[in-house]
Automatic annotation (TrEMBL):
Domain HTH cro/C1-type positions: 14-67
Organism listed in the record: Flavobacterium psychroterrae
Identification of the protein by name: Helix-turn-helix transcriptional regulator
Signal peptide: none
Length: 136
């Protein structure tokens, strides 16, 4: 088998991306609404039609281009370019420009206002029904 054929084997690329995402064939099959045997067949195929490739890409959470251009060397280089986080400014945490607790409290206040409006609407309905019953 030539190196060129191996590099362009779409099924192997799908398999490697799936493995890097720590996903089993069964999980990918479930995400695509198919079975594990179909995923195995796709991963053993040298080529995959564009429609099926788009489905696979969506289920894996990557773009079609990412699958087509994937290589183990590029993935290794990508991860090797990260340095030790203690000695650099690289930080993989979330950077919020707001205080998450403040946002949470805003949502709680909003829910409280909505609940009070709902309660008032129910009281108004009850009052209206009582007026109708008393009128008879």
């Amino acid at each position: 088998m030539s190196t060129l054929t191996k590099q362009n084997h779409i099924g192997r690329k799908i398999s490697r991306i799936r493995e890097l995402r720590d996903m089993k064939q069964e999980a990918l099959a479930q995400a695509m609404g198919t079975n594990q045997q179909a995923i195995s067949a796709i991963e053993n195929s040298e080529t995959v039609d564009d429609e099926k490739l788009a489905e696979v890409a969506k289920a894996l959470g990557v773009s079609v281009e990412a699958i087509k251009n994937f290589s183990d060397e590029a993935a290794i280089n990508y991860f090797n370019n990260f340095t030790d986080t203690k000695d650099s400014n690289v930080n993989f945490g979330n950077h919020c420009s707001f205080n998450p607790l403040d946002k949470l409290m805003e949502v709680v206040d909003e829910n409280k206002k909505l609940y009070e409006r709902l309660l008032q609407a129910e009281k108004d309905k009850l009052e209206y029904v009582e007026k109708l019953l008393n009128a008879k």
